[in-house]
Amino acid sequence: MLATFYFPYVSMLTSTSVPPALTELISEGRIQAAAAQASRHVDTCDPDLLPGLLQLHGDLQMAVGMDVDAEESYREAQKLMRASKEQVRFASCRNAGWQALFRCRYGTAMSCFMRLVDQPGSELSLRLEGYFGMFGVLFGLGRLRDADGVLDALDDLIDDSSTTLTTARGWRELLTAVRFDVATQSELRSHPELSDHVYWQSGLAGEGAPRIAPMQGTTPRVSTYTVQTPLLRARTDYLKQLMQLANGQRDVGHVLGAHADWAGKQGIASYQGAVRIEIVLASLAGGAPALAESILTLLNAEVRMPQSHRQLEYLYCFAKLRHQQERNAESLRVYTRYALTAMRCIRDEAGALARYAQRTVRVPEQLDDIGARLPARYRRAYRYLVDNLDRKDLSIREIASEIGVTERALQSAFKSSLGSTPSEIVRRLRMERIRAELQTSEGAHENGILATANKWGVSNRSTLVNSYRREFNEAPSDTLNR
């Protein structure tokens, strides 16, 4: 499961008491060693720091599959918390959300994480975790576009809190790695050889398509050069090799297998299972059925798992492998089980998606093609620009100040993403709105042209005529009289 791999790193970023030695172990991906070190720290910790350390210890225990011990650590942490009843309830909600996500109980997890994000009084660290948890649920449900939107909201929250959030750099690095992860997963599951994986295809088509997904057969368009933390880097490097396998480069199989073995040695069994499924999918896409079969033999226990989602991918991979081996009767029999399991999953997910849909009942603002091409932070600048087009005094300095960047940074982001400066975008949008009114307003006349322009922040006739002609190769009066 994607979110559970990043969970120790998220916990480290949000914890109030992480000894340097623990930070180093988690960052290096030595999760089992970090759990053991946390246990030793708990025995010698300053009482004031103990609640936070106990919660971190519980997180690491859960990451390595020690669910019962994790629950006990959480309970002890809450008993020792010197906080209001409301904050204790928030902590309990946070712990319950992660426990539910690890157990694939998506409805419960979504309810808990939504509360962390939406309830007044929730601390910044909890809201950050809430958004990341919501992302994990939506990704697990195959709702890649919604998951991508939650990452945008998380990105905005980090931007808004950058002056007070001491771990902002770590969060940005995490977001870069996760966006690359989602782009790679989307490309893999969009491969023509896997087009009958109906559970995922339902989330990859039409409105479910993630905006950051690359065209099939290309390298994901998310740069990872800023990802330097060893834990995150190990994942992004593995994903690059995974797509090499999916594109037919079979000699990377042993490297991918080594990553799965590393996960097993760290005790993160749920992630090891997810990695093996990813390797099988890439093998089936890349025409390496022998490698797929060798990995599937290590996953036989998955089909007996009580969680439908754990069975789902295994059943699809097994059916697809038998189809490629031309063992069609067996393939059809297993694919039928897969289809029934997919329907059961969709039915079970209805509650989680309904909760999320209620939260987003208001239709979100749909960015046009200009806004969608900007980085998340600068989309806010674009929205602000659009909302204030009618103001004559709208300035680039004001737009930059609205999102907390310099004018130079704003100019650079717009130019690199759109090929136009913010001033050029303002002028173009104003001319488009003026033209739309001239084309649709009945009874408009020559004396009304400047009045229409005034409504959109343009009061100078010469500026109007020159800008309008530049955009449409005609004067405003030509549009009006046509």
UniProtKB/TrEMBL annotation:
Q: Which PROSITE patterns match?
A: HTH_ARAC_FAMILY_2 (PS01124)
- InterPro entries attached here? AraC_XylS_family_regulators, Homeodomain-like_sf, HTH_AraC
Which Gene3D superfamilies does the record cross-reference, listed alphabetically? Homeodomain-like
Q: SMART domains under this entry?
A: HTH_ARAC
> What does UniProt give as the signal peptide span?
none
Listed GO MF terms:
DNA-binding transcription factor activity; sequence-specific DNA binding
| Domain HTH araC/xylS-type stretches | 379-482
UniProt keywords, alphabetically: DNA-binding, Transcription, Transcription regulation
Full protein name: HTH araC/xylS-type domain-containing protein
Highest lineage ranks of the organism?
Bacteria, Pseudomonadati, Pseudomonadota, Betaproteobacteria, Burkholderiales
